[in-house]
Write a structure and sequence with these properties.
The complex is a heterodimer of chains A (50) and B (326).
Chain A (H helix, E strand, L loop, with lengths): L1 H26 L3 H19 L1
Chain B lengths: L22 E3 L5 E2 L14 E3 H29 L4 H24 L1 H15 L1 H21 L2 H12 L5 H11 L22 H13 L6 H9 L1 H5 L4 H12 L3 H6 L1 H7 L5 H13 L6 H15 L13 H10 L1
Antiparallel strand pairs in B: 1-2, 1-3
The chains are: A mainly alpha (50), B mainly alpha (326).
Chain lengths: 50, 326
Amino acid sequence: MLTYVCLGLLFLFVASRAAAYYFRSRRALSPEKLDQYILTILQTRERENK
Amino acid sequence: MNKKIPVQISPYIRTHNSYQKLKICRSCGNFTVLGDEECGACGKMALVPVEDRAAALTSGAAWLERLLALVLWGAAIGLGTNDMEWAASGAAGLILIVLLIVAQNKFAETRYRHQLTKLFKRGEDQLVEGLGIDHDEAIEVFQEGDKPLAYEMLREVGMLVRTDQLRMEQILLLQSFILRKDMDLMLEPLLTHRFSPDLVEYIGELAKVRKDLIKEKTFRYVLVHELQILHMEQGEQILARVAGAAVRMKRYVIMYPHLLVRYASKLPKDRFLRLCMILNSDRTRNWGEVGIEVYTVFNARYKHDPDFQSLGGMTFLADSTRYSRY
């Protein structure tokens, strides 16, 4: 019986990881957007410091 | 006037994205664009390129997940009490672990980018602070007297921190150097939002040694601040040099006719000849005011010049001149 519990946990674990990868892939910024994001942070902070 | 010094400047190594130059400290999470190995914030030899760090963290997380899956698989087999359970757990576990690895590989690129994004989002403060430390280090180097190195450091910081202050610091340093054609110089990243006489002087210098760096943004900057430039001591000469750089391409002659109309008469002979050749290359076009100005200057100065004889007296401009006047 415990075997099936462990298998169930393994199934849930793999499914949760696959779902997480899928949703992260939609949220991950493209290199261009990441570049823009960094430049925006730095410009905003510079303005705040002034 | 300050004496200009001859210097050697290392070529700027360009990257596709500006964040690719950043390094992160594995110990304190501080960012830098200047450090080699030693972190400027905590002093530990723990700097690594931010992309390598993201790749290492992504790979580490993947291995941890695989290990956890293996533990669950091992437990499922180990806790089996009969052949049926052993066979079921062995086969199902194997399929699930293969599925996990396939999913990890399929989303490898986006997992890496997500990790990179997370590093920057979590480390916003360290990023700002780290680049501030880099800037301070560059100023220290300048105060110690190593101007070329200070410029190189400011150039690295300036590609990320795009403020007028950093641009001005770079321009002032560049203005203290003797600029040469073989130097890896830049102009567009240094264009300030406000008018700066030092920047204009730098543009004038570049118009002598690196005309290829004078492009659309610079022409727009010069035209926007034309009146202020004319009030400068060498203002008119600088504008004439910029106009000379504009005749490099037909596109610029078409896009910025006002610059050429006003300064065509101030162009040196070789630049004026180049302008005439551009106009001559498209004889059917109505060159408007530029055509009128070029025709006037040509008739006044170069009509009998042997270098201009191949242009056939620029007679095609006489027609367009008539159309444009009325």
